[in-house]
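The instructor's notes for this session suggest beginning with a concrete chain rather than abstract definitions. Hand out the sequence below and ask the class to guess, before any prediction is shown, which regions might be ordered.
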Amino acid sequence: MTGETAPMSRIAIMQPYFVPYAGYFRLFAETDLFVIYDCVQFPRRGYVHRNRLPDHKRQPQWLTLPLAPADRQATIQTLCFAEDAVSRLATARRKFPLLQNLPDEWEALFATVAGPLVPWLGRSLDLCCRSLQIDCPTIRSSELAIAPQLRGQDRIIAICKALGASSYLNAPGGQNLYAAEAFHKEGIELRFLPPYEGSYWSILFDLLTPPTSARLG
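After discussion, reveal the predicted structure:
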């Protein structure tokens, strides 16, 4: 996946999650361009820097990426790994059988937790997509000239217009956040994915547990 600004027909816009559940990748599979939504405030209780995996007792436990201290109002694009992130993440991984003896590509990824967070998350999402045989380019919203005072729906519409999108695809949970009329006025179709009925474990559980058959639906 490579960043680009060519006009796209259908796009998705979503915060970059750390090895999210399989349903997240439906947005990649169903669109022409995935926008990494990193120009918004970091949700400290969200999934940008953490996810749940089964521990030795098959109980869900958080695996959290070690981040450098950040202001409470920090945007996702400004986040960086802690200086000792590599060693801290290696220690945290020991709680999870799934993360022992990883394939080389995943081991290499976990060994490079340094510097800005978003490029690393982009590489992790790219690796997931390749494993799922999904080919969808990405671009970061912070790379677009979007007026900083825009919020919520208005910012989403501005991103769609900046990229020449004719359709915006969102997860089903966003149906109470957006008004189709507002998008239609700007020549953009608002669409939603159908409800997700698969597993909510991190995609790593699906990709690394035999048989490796992640289900997006």
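Then share the key points. The two ends are 22 Å apart (CA to CA). The mean pLDDT is 93.
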